[in-house]
């Protein structure tokens, strides 16, 4: 095992030659060696995330490191912090993922691999464009405000009707949507996913196993194709949503996760193993470490963003500005607190920012002015 372990370490350090990569890919076709590789890779990543040394030269030392690392039953809550550790971690993990998915093409997808792929760092890619990362590690960017992405039965990807290739490697694709953009995604099983601004999603090239799983950060509207033999699960850091075929809105942030059911039925499970079942027009949130009570909501107002609208029903104006900021890619700067101002009505975002601001100013005591990429908001004096 010593030679293999040395090869593993060099792969984690991103030091493999082309010959080494071929050799490692061949080794990983052996299920026992593949399991050992996974074992050491997890220790490597977890050690880096904890800020500990991860370059031992013996199995005994690796075991010592593993015993010092406190793990949890939910892999995604560990992996979430890996990308913030050090830059070498991202490089090593990228090589590891490439070798796993190309050297073990016969291995089924699973939740652990999906959540790990979702946690991979985007490296130096920082763009105001929609960015698509393929299972092969290639990047594509789209400059339009909205992109149409589809995946066929073979895993072949098309972006705005342009096919990226004739076949796709086994692995996970990811899409990142910046502020001011949206993506309409059609998966290989026929499931439609509408990604809101400031969101990302990771999904397999094709659904070849008994489960259909995707990993979401941000907000998306799901129209899940029914398949009773293969349940569909939308994963996030705080909450999982399991369905057979239905429509629901799923929103996740650092503070909370919220699911709103449009049709059908879903089962929700939180990171603390709390569960509940939702029926149409019901919503549940997980925040402050607990699952809140299920409540009935106006579904139309929740999913209005999918039709480029905001439906306000006695909504705080600051929350409206947050939605406008995501859609129009503008910062709203309030000169004083506006927590006491609530508005109701329907805002048609397709009419343009100036038209929307005029509509708000008509019903609320505020005025607007533009300052570069920012919108300045001032309270109007209503005293006579």
Instruction: Indicate the proportion of strand residues.
Output: 25-35%
In terms of quaternary structure, the protein is single chain
Number of helices: 10
Q: Count the strands?
A: 25
Shape annotation: globular
Query: Overall mean pLDDT score?
Result: 80
Largest sheet: 11 strands, mixed
Category by helix and strand content: alpha+beta
Low-confidence stretches: 49-61, 64-107
Question: How far do the termini sit from each other?
Answer: 85 Å
The whole-angstrom Rg is: 23 Å
The share of residues in helices is 25-40%
Write a short abstract of this structure.
The chain has 384 residues and is of the alpha+beta class. The chain has ten helices and 25 strands.
